[in-house]
Amino acid sequence: MSASTTNRMDEDQIEVDTGKVTIVPGTMIEPQCATFCLQDEDHTLGNALRWTLMKNPEVDFASYSIPHPSEARTNVRIQTSDSTTAADAMCKGLDDLADLCSHVIQTFQVELSKGEFEYDEEENAF
Amino acid sequence: MVAEKKNFSHNDLDTLRSRVIVERDRVTSTASTDFPHNYPGQNLAWDFEKFKETFKLKINKMSKTEMEFDMIGIDASVANAFRRILIAEVPTMAVSNVFIMNNTSIVVDEVLAHRLGLVPILADPTKFDFKGKEETPTDLNTIVFKLQASCRRNPNAAEGETDPLKKYIHANVYSGDMKWSPQGEQAERFKDCPIKPVFDDIVVTKLRPGQEVDIEIHCEKGLGQDHAKWSPVATASYRLMPEILINGEITGEAAVRFQKCFPEGVVDVVEENGVKKAVVVNPRKDTVSREVLRHAEFENKVKLTRVRDHFIFKIESVGAVEPQDLFVQAVQVLMDKAMTVKRSLQTTLQSE
């Protein structure tokens, strides 16, 4: 965390940690390809993000790797066709993941409210 | 996707695309391949509307501590992300600092502190803030318990009594002996749901006459990533929905033998025109032990597979937070992670 600085975004007043995502130097030779280094992330976000990136037809290559298991760092490599840029593809992948999550929560809450499941009362009443 | 020479092959594209194939000595076709450009004529690009149509979530069982539900139409990487977050990144309250004023029990200080750390605390973590290492404890980030117990001989015990619980008073120190000491506004905020350990009957230490413990306990908010005591679930796991396909028919005594290869309730033997026939009724109960593939007579007559996007999720909560809240929090954590990374990415790009 020593390398990160925080910025404030004016409208939302949310603190943005600029050390979270960096572009590995030398990997962005053109806007269509880049390796993003995500600090303090692991397979949890890495694999899910890789899947949403692969689902994008503009993306030619998408992968994630963890350079060393002792360091909490994930590299995400994206190569796209000429119609978009790696950064845009990354943003789209993250947006799609967030959309997916919000839909899962909604569906779950609808199912909960329907109450069409077996409820076991007596188990572990504390 | 190499076509293999087998007597009974799983060659068809649909099976390879949507099923994990379970063979006698290996499991194949595990990776999901439904990405754009992989299959000609199929548009497998991400389509939120299509996802909303095909995604299904069905809750099967619920209780205060356990929840079993099915998720259909989601990828393994996302289901696994939920599982990992449930185990490691949903915050809870747990004993963090143990101030031992007096401990003459047989259990040494650090072991006693370790045991106290693992006692689950029934407190809503959303009502507390994280406490940094250098911050002072306040009523918003710390819960205080006092554990005081001393043991003495029971004057009313029978002569020759051997059970220590009857012979001595307070021989066992239980988690229920931890008394909450409300700080600041906590008494007001939690008057409807007083804070206590989830279970009263965890044996923390054992005493004999003359021994005592006098401990002050501070609980803080934390994540399972840091230490397993902060994990809100006993465990969270998922399995893929099994599928059993019979090639042709299995009749007569072979049907009975076939039924015995699976757990009870998976296969039924029905009588049709006087002939016994094996019918798969409930593949969900199958534990996929592949017992049936060990028998030469059935090897080519049955196809064991798992449906690749049907997850049977089971969340067993420790008790501090109810399983339905845990799942919603876990999905929220993944969403927040994605948004944090996106904001940070946009800032990094702007400054380039």
From TrEMBL, chain A:
It is found in: Nucleus. Residues 33-106 form the DNA-directed RNA polymerase RBP11-like dimerisation domain. It comes from Linnemannia gamsii. The gene is RPC19. GO terms for molecular function: DNA binding; DNA-directed RNA polymerase activity; protein dimerization activity. Belongs to the archaeal Rpo11/eukaryotic RPB11/RPC19 RNA polymerase subunit family. It comes from the Eukaryota. InterPro entries: RBP11-like, RBP11-like_dimer, RNA_pol_Rpb11_13-16kDa_CS, RNAP_AC19, Rpo11-like. GO terms for cellular component: nuclear DNA-directed RNA polymerase complex; RNA polymerase I complex; RNA polymerase III complex. Keywords: DNA-directed RNA polymerase, Nucleus, Transcription. The keyword Lipoprotein does not apply. It holds the Pfam family RNA_pol_L_2. This is DNA-directed RNA polymerases I and III subunit RPAC2. One of its GO terms (biological process) is transcription by RNA polymerase III.
From TrEMBL, chain B:
GO terms for molecular function: DNA binding; DNA-directed RNA polymerase activity; protein dimerization activity. Residues 66-344 form the DNA-directed RNA polymerase RpoA/D/Rpb3-type domain. Transmembrane segments: none annotated. It is found in: Nucleus. One of its GO terms (cellular component) is RNA polymerase III complex. Keywords: DNA-directed RNA polymerase, Nucleus, Transcription. SMART domains: RPOLD. PROSITE patterns: RNA_POL_D_30KD (PS00446). GO terms for biological process: transcription elongation by RNA polymerase I. The keyword Translocase does not apply. Belongs to the archaeal Rpo3/eukaryotic RPB3 RNA polymerase subunit family. HAMAP family: RNApol_arch_Rpo3. This is DNA-directed RNA polymerases I and III subunit RPAC1.
